[in-house]
Amino acid sequence: MTASTTRRTTAARSRIAAVGAIAVAGALILTGCGDQTDKGSETTPSGKANAAPLFSKLPKKIQDAGVIKVGTDATYAPMEFTEGGKIVGVDPGVAEALGKQLGVTFKFESGTFDTLIGSMQTGRSDVVMSSLTDTKARQEGLDDKGAKTGAGVDFVDYFSASTGILVKKGNPEGIKTLDDLCGKKVAVQRGTTYEQSAKDQSAKCKTAGKAEVSIESFPTDAEAQTRVKAGGAVADLNDSPVAAYIAQTAGGGNDFEAIANPTDAGLFGIAVDKKNTELRDALKAALDAIIKDGSYKTALDKWNAGSGAVTEAKINAGS
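The chain above was modelled as a monomer; its predicted structure follows.
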């Protein structure tokens, strides 16, 4: 979701949450995780926790609890969304595989995207896993103007995505690249890197002597989609796998088309408090393990997201 710095100059919602704005900006000072109406879901590992290969690498607090609490915004199919009262998708699937290596349960709780990092910093969750783009600004706790707003977070990078441009079926405006959005109205989810991406594109249009992009920001990507479907905006920017999923499923595949921009691929990461290096390193080890044993690929392929697979776990590899 596709993006706060640019959902992504670095591609991805990036969930794309506006560069530091989401990363820490107002979110860090909030104590809540937003609307917590979803019941959430749990991914349950098999076997006893203490028998798992990487259980000993976890912080004792997590070992004792047997749970890693995950903050997410479950409105971003196929990455994370609610189905039958349960949070499902790519991220919960990857988390389930991680849980089998670590011997703990990943418990997802849905909240408002641009408050997730702040809620983790205040202890409501242990990590954030919500198609969150790894950016230097988020790592360092900077807002979109480069001002320091918080301590920042560390990322365990697990997925690669690029900007997806969602347009009405038939592409009536002939949109092929971001440059075609000059002088047009674009809908985005607030706090994503794609909100920032739209702003960056607008500035690029202005520099080129063209009309700027008119940007409408909404609390959820679903609202941005509705705006495009109604003709109020020519495009919705989000992550490439999300745009492709929406185009395939919305209205039986008759509502939208998706245009990928693979040149700006960026990394999604599991966000961890910088002070929690033990948990960060345990997650990295678990990700490498599931990449090696194939369960990572299985989790992605279930949602046709295999094109976003990474070949190794990295920490803070975003730009």
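The chain is about 30% helix and 25% strand.
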